[in-house]
Design goal:
Length: about 200
Amino acid sequence: MAASRADKRGKQVRASIVHWGFAATFLAGITLLASGVAAQQATTPEPTVTAIATPASPTASPMPSPTATSTPVNGYVAANAELDDIVWAREINPKTNAPVRVATGFITTDAAIYATFAVKRIDAGVTVTAEWSLNGTVVPELNASITLDQGYQDGWIEFHLTKADGEIWPIGTYTIAIKVDGTPALTSDIELTVPPS
C-alpha cells in the first residue's frame, strides 16, 4: 500500500510537561530504513508523547530470522527485536536519529538529554516503552510508548528531554529503562552536574 504524503514526512506530536520546577518537552522518535514508515502512538493516559518515524530509503530490507544461539555481549536480543546498548548524546542527526555529540555526562545548562540506541531489527506490532527516573525515583509523567506499524532493521530509536531556555536541569542521576513488549530490554544511567568553573 502506498504511504500517504504525511507518512513520508513522518508524524510528530508534542506535549509540554512541567516537572521538577522546569518546563520539559519529552519526545520519542524512531527513524528506520523503510518506505512509508509511521510509528503509532500507544494509547496511554496523559501526557501525550511524540512518536516520529522518518523513512530513509525507498524500500524495506528483508527481515533476518533470529537464531536461538544468538547471545549478545551487550544490548538486547529476543525473537521480536535486536537492539544495541543506549548511547547518551547532546545532539542527534535529525534525519537518522543517530547520536552526533555523544555524552558521558550532562550539565545543568545542556539544552537536551538524548538516549539513543541502534535497532538491528524489530518486528511489526512491537511496543517500545521508555521509563525515566531521577535519583532512583520514576517520573511517570515522562514515560512514553510507541508501537511500530511494520518491521524494521538498521535504524535508530531515540528518546529525549528538552527544557525551556533559561531553565536548568535538576542535578543527579538520570536513568532510562527501555522495555520491548513489556519485557525489560535496556537500561542506562548518566550523571548530570553543575558546569565546571
